[in-house]
Amino acid sequence: MRGLNFGFTFPKVYNTYFLACVSTIGGMLFGFDISSISAIIVTDQYVTYFDNPAGLWQGGIGAALAGGSIVGAACAGFISDRIGRRDTIAFACLWWLVGTAVQVATRTRTELIVGRVLNGVCVGLTSSQVPVYLAEIAKKDKRGSIIVIQQLAIEIGILVMYFIGYGCSFIPGPTASFRTAWGIQYVPCVVLLVGLPFLPRSPRWLAKVGRTQEAVSVLANIQSGGDQSDPLVVAEWEEITTVLAAEREALPGWRKFVYNGMWRRTFAGFSVQAWQQLSGANVMTYYLTYVFYMANLTGNINLISAGVQYALFIVFTLFTFMFIDKTGRRPLLIYGAIGMAICHFMIGASKPQESTHSYHQYTANAELVLGAYGTSHPEGVHGNANITIKVTGSASYTVIAFSYLLIIVYALTLAPVCWVYAAEVWSLETRGTGMGIAATGNWLFNFALGLFVPPAFRNISWKTFIIFGVLCVGAAVQFFVSYPETGRKSLEEIEEMFRPGGPKPWKTKLGQSVLDERAQSVAAEQRKASLGYEGKAEVVREDGTVETVEKKWIDGFANGSNGAV
């Protein structure tokens, strides 16, 4: 369990924001692959070359990434526990390089699907293990914002690749436009591979595999600039070793995910990722150009309007980056799901101002915009067979406005927070595999929805949004009754919240960390020793033991020092 060997030692950088910015390029790969399709699927070159794929064919192309991601996420824990979080990300990049090559050279729909499946294996590995790596290196009071960088990287990848795809759409020729766009996907992968050797391995993974000296050194370098006697380092190392010793007494195999309250963590990690997909936001991420076709936006106006949505995604996730560790996870999840439900309903539900329809069609206070105002186009809208309904006038503006608002609410809440929460709930012994399980939940439903949405638009049109609205209400209920607050608590403290007899989720609050009290206790003991009183001070030795050192004021002068430990 030594991890991958690069042949020589690279200098390491321990600034957590730098570590996050490099490692989350893995998330950027995910964003690149999303936009490499969403910006291309409405271009004439794509529609002509692939013979206007519709229904399950287009659903299969869109869902292929998620299909591969299921495989990657399912294998991620096994790989991560053996070679480490950082090196798993490097291994994932190899799949990306091969998958991108297949996409660039594709000649058929089937080859395109195969290339996206291979890219998906990479995304499954990185989407599950980058959050684990970030959670294990970050300080508890900044952990939320650090993991949010993963979501920001995804969104930046979506925006950059979307406009690359848009620009490439002007390249003449039958295939040069989309082949060029897909080939540019090599760039972030190469940058990630170059940056990874400069990142340290996770101290918690190092502790888990018995590389104690390295674990202590990395923990001290990240938390206190290398000072192994820092009170926070001492307190956190004690927590890590105590919890790890207890976990090693756990049942082997799959039973460790259900015993002693672990089923609650398994359920929370899997379901929070599933709800991120079932919220329906990826309908806008993958198929916003289709939605805007329904709202009568065409051509460059459609593509640019969709690009604006991706820019909004980044801007509002930045707000979450700034306040997630101040507000906590529960409020963002609960109110975010409610807000998204309202947006879904409003895309189809709004009281009409004027109408030429009969009175009997509007007996309710709210009517369906797409349902009431939409005109049926069984042959497809603007030649695209996936879109069979269109609205114009004020109704189209309602659809556009609430599509944007849906993404804003999602960017503020579920998009980043679901990744944060899923990375926090696992124990050290189960975190690598557990996050793989959580990410598998994300990608299973991503795959299902990727297949479902194009046929749903084709067959039930506006009712698709009503289904997602109902699902968002269900998500809000579950968030309230089963997710305790994890914000500003150490990963080891979070474990206690899920054990039998732990607090009711709705009674948990932000902060209230026992680790702070323990660090203050260590600091007080060290201050007593340094002030010349007979006392005890604690320091983490290189072998991982926490040694209590007795010190007397007179000893300090005898040794020619000031008496400090």
β-strand percent reads: under 5%
Q: How many helical stretches?
A: 24
The topology string of helices and strands comes to: HHHHHHHHHHHHHHHHEEHEEHHHHHHEEH
Could you tell me the number of beta strands? 6
Helix content: 55-70%
Cα end-to-end separation = 35 Å
Q: What ranges have pLDDT less than 50 throughout 5 or more consecutive residues? A: 350-368, 551-565
| Morphology | globular
Helix-strand makeup class: mainly alpha
Mean pLDDT level? 79
Structural write-up:
α13 packs antiparallel against α19 (414-424). The two termini are 35 Å apart. This protein has 565 residues and is mainly alpha-helical. It is built from 24 helices and six strands. It has helices at residues 16-23, 25-38, 44-49, 56-83, 85-104, 109-137, 143-168, 176-183, 186-195, 203-208, 212-224, 231-247, 262-278, 281-294, 299-327, 330-348, 369-373, 394-412, 414-424, 431-459, 463-482, 491-497, 514-530, 553-558; strands spanning 349-350, 367-368, 375-376, 389-390, 535-540, 546-551. The radius of gyration is 26 Å and the shape is globular.
Task: Considering the chains and any ligands shown, give keywords for the structure.
single chain; 565 residues; mainly alpha; two-stranded antiparallel sheet; two-stranded antiparallel ribbon; 6 strands; disordered C terminus
